[in-house]
Specification:
This protein is of the alpha+beta class. It has one domain (52-209). It has four helices and seven strands, in the order H-E-H-E-E-E-E-H-E-E-H. The strands form two sheets. Strands 1-2-3-4-5 form a five-stranded antiparallel beta sheet, sandwiched between helices. The mean pLDDT is 84.
């Protein structure tokens, strides 16, 4: 084996060893951080549920309405997918007497100006919008990022089956005022809330027919 071949072999062996060590280190870091990250996500979800149902006793994941069990109708899922909407976990908000006070519904829109917008929408058992908690948003500062301060307060305690937005000042009970200069963000927000209302409608229909 000449010197050039030996050098190349040595260099290759060093690279393999470095890659192996780096891979092991990354794996170790992942194992160390996986559980804390999962706990933080669970905490964030719990806090978002509490934000829309601050007076309720606790929250239980409504396993009969998770996306993986096909409880949502194919028609609704197709409709929401066409709007860039994904429904995540759904939680029962449980009152002190053990009854279901409403539902916390996790919904994501991929149609935000800066990417995904994910909200936790709270809807009471009577169909009243209790509010929304923003889980994920990356809109333009000073425009779409004002969704929490401008859009979210407007839907609090609305008793409607659908909302819409206006740029000229709301005149109907199901309208909200758009964020000036942020029509895309407002549209995504509106679609998310309407998706949550649609999901609530299906839950009510199933429970009513049970």
């Amino acid at each position: 084996m000449n010197k050039d071949v030996k050098a190349a072999f040595k260099d290759g062996l060093v690279l393999v060893i470095i890659t192996l060590i780096a891979g092991l280190a990354l794996g170790a870091v992942y194992q160390l951080t996986k559980e804390p990250i999962a706990q933080q996500k669970e905490l964030a979800l719990a806090e978002s549920c509490r934000a829309v149902f601050p007076d309720e006793e606790g929250f239980v994941q409504a396993t009969s309405f998770t996306p993986c069990d096909h409880a949502l109708s194919e028609q609704l899922k197709t409709q929401l997918a066409g709007e860039g909407i994904t429904v995540g976990n759904i939680y029962n908000a449980v009152s002190a007497d053990g009854n279901t006070a409403g539902y916390a519904i996790e919904v994501t829109s991929s149609e935000g100006y800066g990417g995904d917008i994910k909200l936790m929408c709270g809807i009471s058992s009577e169909g009243v919008l209790r509010g929304v908690s923003i889980l994920e948003i990356s809109e333009t500062a000073g425009l779409g990022m004002r969704a929490e301060s401008v859009l979210a307060p407007q839907i609090h305690n609305m008793n409607v089956t659908e909302i819409t937005f206006t740029k000229t000042g709301k005149t109907a009970e199901n309208e909200i005022d758009a964020i000036s200069g942020a029509t895309i963000t407002t549209t995504a927000f509106t679609n998310i809330v309407n998706a949550a209302l649609d999901v609530y409608g299906e839950i009510s229909s199933v429970k009513g027919g049970a």
